[in-house]
Amino acid sequence: LLERKGERTALLTTRGFRDALAIGYQERKKIFATRIVKPEALYERVVEIDERVLADGTIETPLDEAAARAALETLRADGFDAVAIVFLHAWAHPAHEAAVGRIARDIGFSQVSVSHEVSPLIKLVGRGDTTVVDAYLSPVLAAYVARVAADLDAERSGIRLMFMMSSGGLTAATLFQGKDAILSGPAGGVVGLAASGAAAGFSRVIGFDMGGTSTDVAHFDGDYERAFETEVAGVRVRAPMMQIHTVAAGGGSILHFDGERFRVGPDSAGADPGPACYRRGGPLAVTDANVMVGKLLPEFFPAIFGPDQNQPLDVDTVREKFAALAARIGDGRSPEDVADGFIRIAVANMVEAIKKISVQRGYDVTRYALNCFGGAGGQHACLVADALGMTSILVHPLSGLLSAYGMGLADVRATRQKTLAVPLDAEAPAALAALAEALRVDARADLLAQGIAEAEIETKVRAHLRLAGTDTALAVDVAFPGPDDPARLRAEFEAVHRRRWGFVAAARAVVIESVEVEVIGGGARATEAPPAATHAGAPEIARRTRFHSGGESHD
C-alpha cells in the first residue's frame, strides 16, 4: 500500500460519481502548503454504470445489466483481474451492487470487492476507499497466503494456518482480506502488551514498542482501543484497527545538527548500513548516542559486525564522530553531552506520541504501567516514564519479540459493522438488538467454520453514537442480547464524550449511527505463572561502568 504495488484495480461506480473518491472530503492536511501533492489513486480505471438508487430506496435509474456486462468484459480483456464495485446508497439498498458483483464473478474476475459486503456503512467516500483497498491488496495477500500454506504443506499436514488482523484477532487463512491486514504487525504487539501486563498484575498499560526505525505506542485499560476510520498512505480505510500511534524515533533514527538545533529522524540508517557503531560506514544514530553515553556496552552485544561479521560494536568510531560534532557545535559541550542531548530529543518525540493516545484522550497516564518492548525500548523506558510521571515499568522476558508472542496469545475474532442511523429513543433498543443479532449470526458462522465450539464463543456488541448534526461517533458497549436501556446508553455516551472533549451538549439529540458486533473464541488461553519474587540482595558487579546522563557521569 505504501509503495503502491498492489493489483491493477478497476472501479465501477454510479454514473456521475467517477471523481468522488479522488475529490474525497476536500480537506487539506497541510493548510499552508502552496504545492498540494495528492496521493496516487489505487484504481487504474473508472467505469460509470447507468444506475441510481435514492436514499429512501426508490430506483431513479434502473440498472442496465447488459451495459454493465459489456463494460466488465472490456476490463477483463484489458487484463484487469480485480474490480471494486461502489454504488450510491448501496449500504442500505444493495440490489444493484449485488447484481453487478454476480456478473463480474461469472465473467471470471478473481477478486470482486463489493462495497455492501466489505463495508456496509453510510458515506460514499469512506465506503468506496475501503472497497478499493480491499480489491487492491487482497490478490497480493492471497498469493502470499498460498505460498505460506504450500511451504508448510498445510493440506497434507492438516495444520491450522491463521493470520493476525489489524483489529487484534486471528482469522483463518481463507478469510484473510486486504482491508484487515494493514496494521496487523503492530496489532500483535498490542495483544502481547495487554496479556503480559495482565499476567504481571497491571490492568492499565501503555505499550512502548521501540524498534530500529520507529516507535509504536498504544493504550490499554481492559479493552482494546480501535479506530474505525483510519487514513493510511493517503487512503481512508473503514475497518477496525488497533489504535496505534507511530513516530519516527527508533534506534536507527539519524541524528542531525543543522547549525542551530538538534533533530532526530525521521530518516533512518536502516539495518544496512545501520548506525555508525555497526562498522558499515553508517551515520550517527540514536543507538550510537547510547553507546557514547555508556548505556550500551559492547561486551554484552554479540560480535557480529565488520566485513567478516565477527567484531564487536565500534566504540572508537562513535567517539571520534561525536568529538567532531561537539567541535563543530563549538559551545563547550562535551561529546557525551551532545549524545545525551540527542537522546533527550528522541525521548521528547516518544513522550509526545504517548500523550496523543492518553492525556489528549482524557486518560491519567500516571496511573498506568509502561510496558516496554521492541529492540531499543529498554534503553529509553526510564527516561520516557520519568517525563510522563509514570512510576512502574514492565519489561517482559520476551520483550524483544512481544509482537510475535502476542499473536500466539490472540483470540480468533470476527467483526461485523452496519449502519443503523436511528435516533436514540424508546424504539431504538429493539432495532439495535435486531441488527446486532443478524450481524452476530453472520460473524459466528466464520468462527464455527474454523472449528470453534459454540460454547467457547463470546459476543460483544457496541453502538457507535453521535450527537445529531455532528459526524464523529463514539463507541459504547451494549448489553446483549438486550434490548438495552436508552437512558443508560445516553449516560454512557455522555461520560465518554465528556472524557474525550471536556463537555456534554445535554440538550442535543443522540443518534445511533452504526452497530458493531465482535465474536471471540478459540484463543490460546495461555497463562503465565507469576515469577517468584527473590530477595537475595544486590548481585555482585563484575566491573563498575560509568554512564553519562543529565550533564554528569554516574556509576
Topology record:
Elements: E1 9-14, H1 20-23, E2 45-49, E3 52-53, E4 59-61, H2 65-77, E5 82-86, H3 95-107, E6 111-114, H4 115-118, H5 124-151, H6 154-157, E7 162-164, E8 170-172, H7 184-199, E9 205-210, E10 215-220, E11 226-227, E12 230-232, E13 235-237, E14 241-242, E15 244-247, E16 253-257, E17 262-268, H8 286-292, H9 315-329, H10 335-357, E18 369-373, H11 381-388, E19 392-394, H12 402-409, E20 412-423, H13 428-449, E21 458-467, E22 474-478, H14 486-501, E23 510-521, E24 547-549, E25 552-554
What portion of residues belong to β-strands? 15-25%
Q: Tell me about the largest β-sheet.
A: 5 strands, mixed
Instruction: Give the termini separation.
Output: 48 Å
* Principal-axis shape: globular
| CA-based gyration radius | 27 Å
User: What fraction, in percent, of the residue positions are helical?
Assistant: 25-40%
Total number of beta strands: 25
| Secondary-structure content class | alpha+beta
pLDDT < 50 stretches: none
Number of helices: 14
Mean pLDDT: 89
Spatial strand order of the main sheet: 15-10-9-18-19
